[in-house]
Design brief:
single chain, alpha+beta, 5-stranded mixed sheet, 3-stranded antiparallel sheet, 14 helices, globular, binds iron/sulfur cluster
């Protein structure tokens, strides 16, 4: 196993991807250490999201809140607004909670210990292992989708996911070295992201092409096997875009729990199964006009279709939400599904 980790680390020393939260292997050898705050933030942002999508968000967050103490002192609405468009908004709420817990309970320093990290809001076993390993170079097994794919191929494992998870984790555990475990964890992820890619692995330039069983047996492109997913259900509902005659928009802050929790959005109905009548719930009395086009958006567990109703109103007494002056209204602070509704009325 030592040979496998050594050959991968040699490859990583030359081919490590440059990322704004990462300390390259040459700098690390010169004694530079990753900033645990940056590693933690990147890992929270990268949950369910690609490096390409995360990079600009990460850079904006770090520029605006350079330390965990800065983030802990931020206004909730500013953080939620900066997160808009990145999705999975519970992560943004937990980001704030975690920063505040680190400042209040940990003296402003992230703990290195896996168990202590796990006690912080929004940090599950994967993120605790990643932060402990990458930021503090402690030996923990870090298994994301890239690592699962590489392990399934290296050992030609045909058990479908998710049942294969413990098997692939056990392989990853055996391979994780005592020396440079943080670099090793990032190296496997980089290998999966750049060479051992889902559809067409570039086995010819892979540092593990010799020992790889799937390459030898010609099964690489078909691995990992996956249990087929059920089709996503469809839900539908209605959103209401009311603009006052001075230009102000009627917005509401969604409840903290549930989808898009804590984010600003248009008032609207519940989202119900598409087999039920589409619900209506106008936030105030007005001459509502229905747009011809509808919003279509896909969440993790369902597809959503929203009717968009628009109205110009003179009355300042809404039944839900509050008016936001035009100069303070930033469409980029809206979550994507809400921004889609706004985009429709611009066309
Ligand atoms: S040899 Fe091919 S299939 Fe095997 S780990 Fe490398 S890229 Fe993946």
């Amino acid at each position: 196993m030592r040979d496998l980790s050594d050959s991968l680390l040699e490859w990583y020393d030359v081919h490590a991807r440059a990322m704004p939260w990462r300390v390259p292997p040459t700098d690390k050898k010169a004694g530079l250490r990753p900033d645990p705050y940056a590693v933690w933030m990147s890992e929270i942002m990268l949950q369910q999201t690609t490096v390409a999508a995360v990079t600009a968000y990460f850079q904006r967050f770090i520029a605006r809140w350079p330390t965990v103490a800065d983030l802990a002192a931020a206004q909730d609405a500013d953080v939620m607004g900066e997160w808009a468009g990145l999705g999975y908004y519970a992560r943004a709420r937990n980001l704030l909670k975690c920063a505040r817990a680190v400042v209040a309970d940990q003296g402003g320093e992230f703990p290195a210990d896996h168990a202590a990290l796990l006690k912080l809001p929004g940090i599950g076993p994967y993120t605790a292992a990643a932060v402990s390993s990458i930021a503090f170079d402690l030996r923990h097994v870090v298994v994301d989708g890239n690592v699962e794919r590489v392990m399934a191929r290296l050992f030609d494992e045909h058990t479908p996911l998710p049942a294969a998870k413990p098997i692939l984790t056990a392989h990853a555990e055996r391979l994780t070295p005592n020396q440079r475990p943080g670099d090793y964890a990032q190296a496997v992820m980089d290998l999966g992201a750049t060479i051992c890619s889902p559809k067409s692995p570039a086995c010819g330039i892979c540092p593990w092409r010799g020992p790889c069983k799937a390459r030898a047996r010609g099964t690489a492109a078909s691995l990992p096997k996956k249990t087929p997913k059920k089709a996503k259900p469809i839900r539908h509902g209605t959103v209401y875009l009311a603009q006052r005659d001075d230009g102000a928009w009627l917005l509401e802050t969604r409840p903290d729990s549930g989808l898009l929790g804590g984010m600003q959005g248009w008032p609207g109905s519940e989202w119900v199964d598409a087999s039920l009548p589409r619900p209506v719930a106008p936030p105030l009395k007005a001459e509502w006009t229905k747009l011809d086009a509808e919003v279509r958006h896909t969440f993790t567990h369902f597809h959503l279709m929203l009717d968009v109703m628009v109205a110009t109103v003179t009355d300042a007494g809404p039944g839900a939400g509050s008016f936001v002056n035009l100069k303070d209204f930033r469409p980029s602070d809206l979550p994507t599904v809400m921004r889609k509704a706004f985009d429709l009325i611009q066309n």
